[in-house]
Amino acid sequence: MLSHRWEGEEPRLDDIQGKSVYELNSVGNVRKLQRFCETARDAGYHWAWSDTCCINKNDTVELPESITSMFRWYQHSSLTIVYLYDISPSSGSGALSSVALTIMTIWNGRGWTFQEFIAPKVIIFCQNDWSLYLTIALPTIKHQHQS
What we know:
Shape: globular
Strand order of the largest sheet: 1-2-3-4
Oligomer: single chain
Helix content: 25-40%
Distance between the termini: 20 Å
Structural class: alpha/beta
Order of helices and strands: EHHHHEHHEE
Mean pLDDT: 81
Low-confidence stretches: 141-147
Radius of gyration: 15 Å
Number of helices: 6
Strand content: 5-15%
């Protein structure tokens, strides 16, 4: 699953439905979606999920159901990829002591950040060039009481 801050026009469901993400014109945030899919693929996954294009925001039934299900979806995801577009490679590698820098990014200013941080089992943070910044494998104890 992708955790990111929306930037301008993001690809929507109707932009990608029935198409290969890699065949889309690689401009703007389509490129972000493509890089997310590449990162997930390189991590060994065949499927990737991004809220911008996997939820039909025009469907008045699907949208509220999706919003109320987000925590559970992140909780059951195998991997969450956080895209930190405001962290450049010159920021240095993501040593555990630099978690504070990660938390201070614009990503943390979003309303959904908390659930996207505490729900997943494994989170990787990527810098704005999609290079690895930090990986966090959270203890499984918080996941033992799933319903």
